[in-house]
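Before a colleague's protein record goes any further, I have to sign it off. What it holds is a sequence and that sequence's fold in token form. My question to you is simply how this chain folds and whether the tokens agree. Thanks in advance; the entry in question is below:
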Amino acid sequence: MLTLQEIFETHTGRLVHKWDHYFDVYERYFTVYRDSPVNILEIGISHGGSLQMWRKYFGEHANIFAVDINPECKQFE
């Protein structure tokens, strides 16, 4: 199973902006929720690439919700 940083580094979908030093923290706290029916809310999704990254990380059982101030982000539903 890939780590979140490995998923980020091999991501070929929509653009993702994440600071590298967050990955260890994300991994430490989020790994227990992988492949479980967890609810995730991301505030500020920009190009929508992080939604793809979270889907790959958490799996198909996760419910991933997103909001953004930019109405054009609605296309990532």
Q: What stands out?
A: The chain has a mean pLDDT of 89. The chain has one domain: 4-76.
